Amino acid sequence: MALYADVIIDTGVRDLDRVFQYRIPEDLEGKIGRGTRVRVPFGAGNRMSDAFVTDISDKAGIAEERIKDIESSYGAPDADGKLIELAGWIRNEYSCTLSQALSLVLPVKKKVREIMKYTYVLEDREKAEHLLEELSRDRRRAGAARFLSALLSQGTVPEESLKAVIGVTAASVRKLTETGAVARTASRQYRDPQIFRLSPHAEAELNDEQSRAADDIWENAGRVRENWNTHDAVHLLYGITGSGKTEVYIELIRKTLAEGRKAIVLIPEISLTPQTVSRFYERFGELIAVTHSRLSAGERYDQYMKARSGEASIMIGPRSAVFAPFDNIGLIIIDEEHDGAYKSEKTPKYHAAEIAAERARKGGALLVLGSATPSLRSYSRASKGEYSLHVLRKRARESSVLPQVSIADMRAELAAGNRSIFSRELYSAIEQNLEHHEQTMLFLNRRGYAGFVSCRSCGEVIKCPHCEVSLTSHRGGRLKCHYCGYEAAMPEKCPSCGSPYIGRFGIGTEKVEDLVRKTFPSARVLRMDRDTTSAKDSAGKIVSAFASGKADILIGTQMIVKGHDFENVTLVGILAADTTLFSGDYMSTERTFQLLTQAAGRAGRGAKPGKVVIQTYKPDHYCIRTAAEQDFPSFYDKEIKFRSLMGYPPAGHMLLFLLEGADEEKVKSAAEQAASAIRYFQNEGSAAGTDLLGPSPAAITKLKDLYRYVLYVKCLDEGHLRLVRDSVENELKNKEYMKNIYLNSDIDPLTIV
Ligand code: ADP
Ligand code: ZN
Ligand code: ZN
Description:
CATH topology of the largest domain: Rossmann fold
CATH architecture of the largest domain: 3-Layer(aba) Sandwich
CATH class of the largest domain: Alpha Beta
CATH superfamily of the largest domain: P-loop containing nucleotide triphosphate hydrolases
Oligomer: single chain
Number of helices: 23
Number of strands: 31
Radius of gyration: 30 Å
Strand content: 15-25%
Bound molecules: adenosine-5'-diphosphate, zinc ion
Low-confidence stretches: none
Distance between the termini: 55 Å
Number of domains: 5
Helix content: 25-40%
């Protein structure tokens, strides 16, 4: 009996986003399942195309002779049916094609060569002893005899040690397996991605706060398994920096595994936080599979298979690890849940927490969101009682207390004649730290040498020819676009007026490094930003060099802020707190608060007390004040009022349409057409109660040679916005004015585009 497969062609084209039936040829029978990727002849020309198998059946849906054969399979494993269901949910939720959703939930396309490990084991001791006696009399078989006596004393001998250690060929040993005394066994070897591992701290018993949080969360596990509801299943763990959230996660994972269930742990960027990952390895060892963007194809495949086969019970990784191929998930943890990296910038623009909630709901699992600076989104849900809230108020290590924070008013510094990048307070604190051999971290959220380059005569700012953004000056006189990677040499004259007076303004981490070296010549300095961490594992090397005391000062961008636990750091300097504060975007205050609090939280985590200096031109801004006091609840109260007033998320919801195209006039008129479609839906009733803003040019009006226009639709009801999105997209589809225009949508974007 013939078998058929329903397939979805792997393309972003919406018109092809439906199932086509193909025959499974005999030689592929049993090798193709739901979720495997195949090549099929498609269309009138039978062009070979990639496709996903979504279902298998024994009935032909159309006339047998019209069904084509699948050409070949990529050989990757099949998938749990629930993941394919999840892809269907993603398509509706984020308005993408099913093939886009499938490539997300099924990240492994091809089978990669599997590495096997062979081991010799003792099968029959008596026989082996006899054999050894026999062999010992034959000098030509001394190697085999050495092997047998090693096996008799150790019980097992790995094949790879035969030549090097025992000095015998694999061929002569393999012959011994015919005697029945010895057997050769095979096991699957998983490529180890060698995540940078640091030696973690000693295991500690949970303190009262930690065990209360763990118990209160776990207490819901049984109930949620039977009868899932958001309040019992979704937990926000708000614990100040250093309060020991990781230990709470570990405790919950231990309980989950004890019930035979699986756990997923999301961390924002695995290569930046080797310490956190080390702690999980220390406790759970080989039960862990990891994933991240820098794995080789072989490592990625093996780690995926380790999870798929059930050999691993914990998947650790960034956003995409939420799609771990587990079928019996009991717990999903999202550490540093406020981090923007959890939202995808590509279609489908999903947030890992939303996918996690859906997987938890389907699997009857717990979802734990942890942070010292919760997102407004999660905290507002917790304060309304939608999520359960757990708070850790004190630092876990008894000797460790919150650092003393002071705010340096840079206007006053200037008035006092100090024109350096260091306030007097920070300067003397660094000096003192160097004297005491304690470590310092200096944070500036801008990489490169200077901020931008402009002409002192006419004011012209040098911009990227492909994007409407200023170029950033880097060392060696290079100018770079941080959006598209364009590079140019620093011009000698102003391209606009010809004046030779071209200056670099603002500072980046490269210049800070130069200034620190000049100001403190005895200090050993490291720098960590996107420019120094492009090589695989370079971030881990910088972190471990600093952790082991090989440098006095670590300078860096937000990379140095995330979750690190350096015991000897007693001073943190935030050089320019205002760089992110006024980026003109509704999330900028929240992001600044998170950065400042997290940066400050790196100080004084060990036995010695910490000090933080925040340099700013806005010392009275509530964001700076509350961050200095490490007072998230006060920040939240102020910020949520502002959001409510403006109808911004999470108080209201926002639907963004972004239209992009190479012809500015066409983009503009398409955006106007989209606006009239929205106004039509408002009048007709299906978009009633929504507000339309725009169309207007995006904040970055041109990016990678594409002009950009935006429209925002605001509404209190998120579900309603989803319907509006679908109607508008449907209305614009295939319209003449949409030709060569890319339309993107996003609900509650994390930045204003
Ligand atoms: P967070 O993730 O909340 O910032 P961590 O889990 O990294 O905090 O813990 C901070 C430090 O406190 C770590 O060095 C950790 O080993 C230590 N720690 C955690 N729990 C305890 C405990 N119960 N007793 C002693 N030390 C602890
Ligand atoms: Zn000029
Ligand atoms: Zn550019």
